[in-house]
Amino acid sequence: MSGGDARRKLAAPTLAMLPRIADSLSFLYTEAVRIVQDDTGVCAQVETRQGTDRVYLPTAALACILLGPGTSITQPAMATIARHGTSLVCVGAGGVRSYAGIMPASLTTNWLEKQVRAWADDASRLQVAVRMYEMRFGTASAPAGASLAQLRGLEGQRIKALYRLMATKYGIKRFKRNYDPDSWDDQDPVNKALSGANTCMYGVVHAAVLALGCSPALGFIHNGTQMAFVYDVADLYKARVTIPMAFSLHASKDPECEARRRLREEFRAYKLMPQIVADIQALLDPSSITSNAGERSSDLVHLWDPDAGALPAGVNYGFEFSDLAVE
Q: Which of 317, 316, 288, 313 is nearest to 299 (CA)?
């Protein structure tokens, strides 16, 4: 086998070679680069006066790549990224606004089926929504018998109290949450950092949702958007991660950039990627949590049977109809 053939073979990994989504790095933000595929792998190119600088991207170890302004990508590079199970998200300057996502094909529908069953029944959907609020409250569980409207109100009060606490801690006399992309430059550093960090958080959660085979559109608290479930899951971590971090950047001259850098460190320090995977599974089916959370399955397809459940695919079942032959 020639050196070029060997490199191309490595660029097309098998399922066994891919890391679990729970073990993935969080995200990579790119801006003003050209992403291409060569004989070695996927790299980001930047044209300089000295020539072309190349930085190779660890695509198989990334949950998602955020494509910022000025970034272009070739079809071969996109194909390799998709084979690696990495999501692509097109974002605005600083990763602030998410425009579109290019996601790899799901390898299994196991968790999608659990999500659909829980979402389609009002009673089970309410149970998942209550579990989400209980996760947000942390040690203080939701009051017994509280309605969804009451839980929303309690969560709103908790976030307002957190804003006041953070403002007092960092000596900010007045703070109001504001997200207005049309007047972005007029916003204060805390709002800029919070919006930028939340968008990166959405990209990572979106990648985790797709890697498990779930639908980002079937939300349990949010509704009416293709990102409903992503917003549901991302809200679990804002009070612990993005809100305190944003207030700590109140004096930053470049809050969006610093927010992205710190968020990467937060993901590494708190091991948030495996936490996101485990939390999604716990929300959808608490009884089925295993030590293999986030594992990519090589059992791609099976057949459904109302009596037997899942049957193996790739099997000829013609013999079962021999007794129905017409004479």
A: 313
- Count how many Cα atoms sit within 13 Å of the Cα of residue 303 in the half-sphere of its side chain: 10
Tokens of 29: 């933000």
Q: Are residues 66 and 115 in the same domain?
A: no
What's the confidence (pLDDT) of residue 262?
A: 87
Does residue 99 register a pLDDT over 80? no
Whether 77 contacts 42, CB under 8 Å? yes
Beta strand 302-305 pairing with 62-67? unpaired
Say if residue 326 is exposed, middle or buried (CB neighbours under 10 Å; 0-12, 13-18, 19+). exposed
Q: How many domains does the chain have?
A: 2
Do 48 and 121 belong to one domain? no
Closest CA to 15 of 211, 183, 186: 211
Alpha-helix runs per DSSP H in 3-88: 3-10, 75-83
Distance CA 148, CA 155 (A): 10
**What is the rounded CA–CA span in Å between residue 294 and residue 280?**
10
Report residue 9's pLDDT band, with 50, 70 and 90 as the boundaries. Answer: very low
